[in-house]
Design goal:
Strand order of the largest sheet: 3-4-5-2-1-6
Number of strands: 19
Shape: elongated
Number of domains: 3
CATH superfamily of the largest domain: Collagenase (Catalytic Domain)
CATH class of the largest domain: Alpha Beta
Number of helices: 8
Helix content: 10-25%
Distance between the termini: 47 Å
CATH architecture of the largest domain: 3-Layer(aba) Sandwich
Strand content: 25-35%
Structural class: alpha/beta
Oligomer: single chain
Order of helices and strands: EEEEEHHHEHEEEEEEEHEEHEEEEHH
């Protein structure tokens, strides 16, 4: 006999042996709670036992005298089922016998008024920009909210969970002992805990579902440069780090355009004769989206979305060798520069103070993003992108 947990945490048991129940006949399973009988389950003509309240029915099952204790496996299984809601019972004869045969209000074959079904309410958990493992639960009307399990603990990037409340702001705190008489939504409450990893006092983000990047090599370059591959590697690394879709596209559709080539060509294209290994021209909206507290007051902006070529965010990466065959160091430095500049194009203003970070201002052949610089940008996308 297999007990399985449904979405509502009601428990059903499927019996594989024939039962003495006629086709189409439903036998109610009754228990007595506080002197009042109510229907906690059914046995239908196909041998399915549907239990609406597992704690009540199993409390009676494990408490029945003698016969059910004859099979220790069944008794243990019933106890486990009450605790975790899911277990295979290898010998269910005694349990089946008592469900069908006991007289009186505890467990019996009886006709029952449908009004004896216990009423329930549905509680919805709103994590308010966080994540929560359970979005809804059903409990009996007037029961504690933790009667079917502890309250879930949500998570949110760079925030500390302060508990569940009956309103998005204000309202009353909800604990495990809180009871509900009607359907309700409860809301997670948070305190921000932003971590700053830049020498600049602002940060930005793209408020789009998919950030689209175009990559192209300009002018004559060596085969070792392989710029479009470097951009693909950088896109994939930032996409995985931020948990956002950053995909390739054509030039006219791009939010970010990435160009690679010889230094003179990159200087001419960017209008900056001081470019050494890479440069990003990034444009953000003039009006701030938010102000956050992170080692002082910091400002959050949206990236400027436009089709005007003059204000399109652009990356320029310089070819550092004209040799056809590049050394590992030269390849790695180009990977670093491309990933670094794409970070700026994604909204990472300024530079990290940690010399090991990709977003540090000095080039080094370490091109793998580290946790602190990932969090610096990810916390903004997680909390502000709509």
């Amino acid at each position: 006999m297999l007990f399985t947990k449904t979405k509502k945490r009601f428990i059903s048991a499927v019996l594989t042996m024939a039962m003495v129940v006629g086709a189409g006949v439903t036998i109610p399973i009754m228990v007595e709670a506080s002197g009042v009988p109510y229907r906690c389950g059914d046995i239908d003509g196909n041998g399915r036992i549907d239990i609406f309240d597992s704690s009540e029915i199993l409390e009676y099952l494990v408490g029945l005298p003698n016969a059910i204790d004859r099979d220790a496996r069944s008794r243990r299984a019933a106890l486990i089922c009450r605790d975790v809601g899911e277990v295979s019972i290898t010998d269910y004869t005694d349990i089946l016998e008592y469900i069908q045969g006991i007289s009186g209000n505890k467990l019996s074959r009886c006709n029952c008024n449908p009004n004896n079904y216990p009423s329930t309410v549905t509680i919805t958990f709103n994590p308010q920009k966080g994540n929560v493992s359970q979005r809804k639960r059903t409990i009996r009307t007037g029961y504690r909210i933790d009667s079917v399990g502890a309250l879930p603990t949500p998570t949110r990037t760079s925030h500390i969970f302060n508990g569940w409340y009956t309103a998005a702001s204000g309202g009353s705190a909800v604990s495990g002992s809180t009871t509900f008489s009607n359907n309700a939504t409860i809301y997670a409450r948070w305190t921000s805990n932003y971590i700053w990893n830049s020498d600049y006092n602002s940060v930005a983000f793209w408020n789009v579902g998919t950030i689209k990047v175009f990559a192209n090599t300009l002018g004559s370059v060596s085969s070792g440069f392989n710029f479009t591959t470097r951009v693909t590697e950088a896109r994939n690394q930032w996409s995985n780090a931020l948990g956002r879709d950053i995909s390739s596209t054509n030039e006219s559709s791009a939010n970010i355009r990435a160009y690679g080539g010889e230094r003179a060509r990159m200087q001419a294209e960017s209008g900056n004769n001081g470019i050494w290994s890479g440069l990003t021209n990034f444009y953000q909206e003039s009006t701030a989206t938010a102000t956050i507290s992170a080692n002082g007051s910091k400002t959050v902006y949206k990236a400027y979305e436009t089709t005007s070529s003059q204000y399109i965010t652009k990356i320029y990466v310089v070819q550092i060798s004209t040799n056809a065959s590049w050394t590992t160091d030269e390849i790695n430095r180009t990977k670093l520069t491309t990933t670094h500049e794409l970070g700026h194009a994604l909204g990472y203003n300024g530079h990290s103070a940690n010399s090991l970070d990709v977003m540090h201002k000095d080039n080094k052949p370490q091109f793998t993003l580290r946790a602190s610089e990932i969090l610096h940008l990810k916390q903004i996308y997680d909390n502000f992108r709509s």
